[in-house]
Amino acid sequence: MKLNNIKHVFFDLDHTLWDFDRNSELTFQKIFELNEVGVEIKKFIEIYSPINLQYWKLYREEKISKEDLRYRRLKDAFDGLNHNIHDDTIDKLSVDYIEFLTTYNHLLDGTVDILKYLSKDYQLHIITNGFEEAQLRKMTNSQITSYFKTITNSEMVGVKKPNPKIFEFALEKAEANKEESVMIGDNFEADIEGALNVGIDAIFYNYHLDSPREEIKTVHSLLEIKQYL
User: Fold this and answer.
1) What local confidence, expressed as pLDDT, does residue 208 receive?
2) pLDDT per residue over 8-27, tens digit each?
3) Which of 133, 179, 193, 227 is 20 to 30 Å from 70 at the Cα level?
């Protein structure tokens, strides 16, 4: 069912367009080699991934700082593996991770095709909670920046999705009305509920194969967005 009167499409970046999981694993493999960390990468990722999601939730809720997020997600993962590692090494890994993450720029399947398709009829925008210093590099290095009219980052606004202020800021920056806008993202709480709570329609990109409410518009691949836009 096509959505009527939509002029502006707002996208999340990580896990929605930019293949965070794949790029992150490649980054850890690189920085573990550089810092001589003797941990099997697959086992580390298995422990790290859910810990990272938990800390990002705390970060969204303003319960921890950026510095705490960067340190504690690594510390807890190494503790979960019973791997002794010095705090100085964790601090170095934290810095190296941000530096090298944007050197890998795999996009999720269908990203370029759907952006080309949508850009013919809509103005496209980004709303992201990711670190400001990394997000623009991700987009530039993966060659998708040109598709977007505006990029709104949580650090510009001082709050993170799902806080209404970041959506209101993005609408103003895009010169868009909420009635003419739709948000697309993979995080149900941050992207979907956040948008709906301020009156922006939303499409849930069910990247993690969650079980959303039936009334929520949902796609399982980016190209399925064509059924709505």
Assistant:
1) 77
2) 999 999 999 999 999 999 99
3) 193
d(CA 80, CA 74): 10
Residue 182, burial from CB neighbour count under 10 angstroms (0-12, 13-18, 19+): buried
Evaluated on CA atoms 116, 117, 120, 121, the torsion sign reads negative
Q: Do residues 90 and 74 touch, judged by C-beta distance below 8 A?
A: yes
Query: Is residue 96 within 8 Å of residue 31, measured between CB atoms?
Result: yes
Which residues are within 8 A (CB) of 79 and not within 5 positions of it... i.e. 6 or more apart?
none
d(CA 190, CA 129): 9
pLDDT (tens digit, 9 = 90+) per residue, 193-222? 999 999 999 999 998 777 767 789 999 999
Q: What is the pTM of this model?
A: 0.93
Taking CA atoms, 70 is separated from 14, 75, 84, 228, in Å, by 16, 9, 18, 37
Among 151, 161, 153, 154, smallest CA distance to 125 is for 151
In angstroms, the CA 51 to CA 80 distance is: 10
Joined together, the tokens standing for residue 31 give 């920085």
Tokens 């690189």: give the residue: 30
